[in-house]
Amino acid sequence: MIPGVTYGSQLALGALGITTIYTVLRFSNFAHGELMSFGAMFTILITWFFTDIGIKLSIIPTAILALPLAIIITIIYCLLIDKFVFKFYRQQKSKSVITLIVSIGVMFFTSGLIRFIIGPADQNFSDGERFILKAKTFKNFTGLNEGLAIKTTQGITIVLTLFLVILLFWFLNKTKTGKSMRAFSDNEELALLSGINPERVVFITWIIAGTLACVAGTLYGLDKSYKPFTYLQLVLPIFAAAIVGGVGNPIGAIIGGFVVSFSELLVTFAYKKIFLYMLPNKIVPDGLLQILSTDYKIAVSFIILVLVLLIKPTGIYKGKII
Q: Which residues lie below 8 Å from residue 112, measured CB to CB, with a gap of 6+?
């Protein structure tokens, strides 16, 4: 349950970023996974700098202190790629499929830039394991044989995701800028006639997308590990989450993130220990008793995506606009 909720929170933030871009700017941003990697990369670099100069907290990972600066850098990068790449196609009123292809080019450029700066190797930026609840403490408290451990990074992921989701919904529904974004996404021509500044809407949209990407990428790296190639593979489960929930619906993006997360975990989970409790030792089969190996986790997202597109292309929430 704990890894499922944690991973689902990370996918939900990623899917929210994709949904925001799709809804307001009307194209599927395939570069979003690399934007997550870009934000995580700068969180790592700033964390290393803080560690070198002696800035460190014992309660939470130092990466959380570096996160606000990394968010600012990621937002600046998003605004730059919009100014020098996406803006031209927006002014030309290009079809969404053309902008989608352009986003793939941005994805490869960002991927190369990341590898040039930090390299392709696995990077560790969690300065020591911290636990909200340790397995030994849980055993002593409950008297059970099996332990339960909750890492600090898992708790931070869930709390930070909840905070950002509430903040985003408040912004979209209660502020004047948020309402103008919703009006622009619903009917662009009518919004322009109402005096809404389209460039301001685009500006705010990229700020939101950059923030969500940086936070999601950093939380994923802290919870698991940071390796640039991993984030390229994250594009599929993130898009699967957005489509399962219903593209264009932020609530659907959140629900879709948890659907994909728990589907992957249930299919790749090792059930041997469960059968050890349920069956006599003599008839418990050898092996981990997984439906699929964790190497095929990405295939689960693909299967979910195909099934949703075949059975209900609109997703759980029917293509509703924010």
A: none
